[in-house]
Design goal:
Elements (H helix, E strand, L loop, with lengths): L2 H5 L2 H29 L20 H34 L1
């Protein structure tokens, strides 16, 4: 089978397209969450009871706890997006 014949395989092209769609959705969700978390402090109500919030009653504590959760999540997302991109490129060969 030549390279041109393999590139026309509809099943591989479908899988490559699904990898790309999943990658775009994953990165879009990650971008939304990063923007949402970083702008949350603008809408913080200092008069409300935040004793049950993650990180305690202070805004700084909440940001620290969310950063400790979000940074490994962002790294995992970047790794997974890289793997999906490589899989898509391999399927399109």
């Amino acid at each position: 089978m030549t390279a041109a014949t393999r590139a026309r395989d509809p099943f591989k092209l479908l899988l490559a397209g699904l990898c790309t769609v999943f990658q775009v959705l994953l990165l879009g969700l990650t971008a939304f969450l990063i923007v949402r978390v970083t702008t949350y402090g603008v809408f913080w109500d200092p008069d409300a009871d935040h004793s049950g919030a993650w990180g305690g009653p202070s805004l700084f504590g909440a940001w620290v706890v969310h950063a400790l959760i979000g940074l490994p999540g962002a790294a995992l997302t970047a790794w997974l997006a890289n793997r999906l991109s490589r899989a898509s490129a391999w399927l399109r060969r």
